[in-house]
Design a protein that fits this description.
Residues 430-457 form a coiled coil. The chain is α+β, with helices and mostly antiparallel strands. The chain has helices spanning 2-20, 70-82, 84-105, 150-216, 222-256, 284-289, 291-312, 357-423, 429-464; strands spanning 110-121, 131-145, 317-328, 340-349.
């Protein structure tokens, strides 16, 4: 009995050794010290807090509705349906889910049917020896036993890739929403600035008419007329430059909503969009809200699982096989009961020498894990930097807006006084032009500061990961009144 078992034990020795070492095929643990930690609070925070849902529990909140602008709402909805970047991300997600299904299928039994004809020699050939044909038809069965976790780790990695693609789809939606909001708000800011400049053009034309009458009456020199004409032409040039910039922004908005620029048009409108106040919350919520961070985390975990796949290549592949059907040397005898055949077996495959291929595969998988870990850390650091950028921008823009408002008030008063004094002949026409030029510059800068506040607000929503509903965590600052364009 011992002699009979000895060959069996010898044959199974490599398998038993592999089973003892199965633990070596598990993916390496990620050192928590290598992962970035969230700050306790934002440096630029102002005490507004919000409790965020984990990214898996979020819905795509319509955060843009906090701006209370129906036109913006319609543009974002159109972009979500037709934007090409979102459709590409959705296709990538469908592709990754198909790859996951294909990977999972390798863990299931494989069944197929087939038929073949071979010509061969040997005892199975007709009497007299020589070459003969053999016909076979039947079903085949195989099932790889995942004793060492190679297939399960590969399936886990594919599942994590699919989760990462889903996060990238959410990120694509957020990016498109933010880009549409920024482009639309920039368009409305340009509309307000264009109206201001064209109003100034009208004022310069009135001044030119008055100056020409005084020149014809001999009260002033031709130099004064030339100065007013210069200011009028320069301001008209600024108005045309703003028209060009608006056309470019409108064309970019057309691409975002999936329209051809030639077929898209958005008429000028009043800039009375509300400016919401965004609560930054605690920094740790950024790690759960931002879809790009979630995608980077899934990529890191997938790379970790692939290390286990590479390590499992050192262990044997074991599969159960089976077949059943018919075999005969004559076609007419093939499907008779006497021609039936079947077989079952087990296959074990273990490469002995591969020129270092498996070792290189493990080192490559470890390098991919290191790169994914570094990418995740960088993504987290960039996320915190984005939030701090927008928070500091909003704080400083609020102060700048107050200072600029005082400048506009003073410049407007100076223009009124200079106009009265000029009409009464107390000051030169050059002083009036300087006053109007200063007022126009300060009013335009006030509009640009206000526009920057809207852009920074959208940027903060994007930096925090979006996902809010209008009444969830957003403190509305009320409908913002359009900046004054008159004196």
């Amino acid at each position: 009995m011992t002699l009979l078992n000895h060959p069996l034990r010898t044959a199974l020795a490599p398998l038993l050794a592999a089973l003892v070492l199965t633990g070596c095929a598990t993916a390496p643990a990620i050192d928590p010290a290598a992962l970035p930690s969230a700050p306790v609070a934002f440096k630029e925070g102002d005490g507004r807090w919000t409790q965020a849902l984990p990214v898996q529990a979020q819905t795509d909140g319509a955060w843009w509705k906090a701006f209370s602008d129906p036109v913006l709402d319609g543009l974002v909805e159109r972009a979500l349906e037709r934007n090409n970047s979102i459709q590409i991300a959705a296709a990538r997600l469908a592709q990754s889910r198909a790859l996951l299904q294909a990977t999972d299928s390798q863990r299931l039994p494989q069944v197929g049917v087939g038929a073949d004809v071979t010509r061969q020699g040997g005892a199975i050939t007709p009497a007299g020896g020589g070459a003969g044909k053999l016909l076979r038809a039947g079903a085949n069965f195989s099932w790889e036993l995942d004793l060492f976790g190679r297939l399960s780790q590969a399936s886990k990695a594919a599942s994590l890739d699919a989760d990462g693609r889903e996060a990238l789809l959410r990120n694509a939606r957020l990016v498109v929403q933010a880009d549409v909001a920024r482009s639309y708000l920039a368009l409305r800011a340009l509309d307000a600035e264009r109206a201001l400049v064209r109003e100034t053009v009208g004022a310069y034309r009135d001044t030119l008419a008055l100056t020409e009458r005084r020149f014809e009456a001999g009260d002033i020199a031709e130099l004064d007329v030339a100065r007013v004409r210069t200011e009028l032409a320069a301001t008209e040039s600024d108005a045309l430059a703003l028209d060009r910039r608006r056309a470019e922004v409108e064309h970019a908005l057309a691409v975002l909503v999936g329209d051809a620029a030639s077929d898209f048009g958005l008429g000028a409108g009043d800039w009375n969009t509300a400016l919401p106040v965004i609560p930054a919350g605690v920094p740790s919520t950024v790690l759960t809200r931002r879809p790009d961070i979630d995608a980077a985390r899934q990529s890191m975990l997938a790379a970790q699982a692939r290390v286990g796949v590479a390590q499992a290549a050192w262990f044997p592949d074991i599969a159960l096989t089976g077949s059943g059907g018919f075999a005969s040397t004559e076609l007419g005898e093939l499907f008779k009961w006497s021609a039936r055949s079947w077989g079952i077996g087990a296959l074990l495959s273990l490469p002995i020498f591969d020129g270092g291929r498996r070792d290189a595969g493990v080192r490559n998988a470890n390098a991919e894990l290191d790169a994914a870990l570094a990418g995740y850390r960088e993504q987290v650091l960039v996320a915190f930097k984005d939030v701090e950028d927008q928070l500091s921008a909003l704080r400083l823009l609020a102060e700048q807006g107050e200072a600029q408002a005082r400048a506009v008030t003073s410049a407007s008063r100076a223009t009124v006084l200079s106009d009265v004094r000029y009409r009464n002949g107390l000051v030169s026409q050059l002083e009036l032009l300087d006053a109007r030029r200063s007022e126009l510059r300060n009013r335009r800068e006030a509009l640009q500061v206000r526009s920057a506040q809207y852009q920074a607000t959208v940027g903060l929503v994007r930096a925090l990961g979006g996902g809010w509903e209008r009444d969830e965590g957003l403190a509305l600052g009320g409908r913002a009144a359009p900046a004054s364009t008159g004196g």
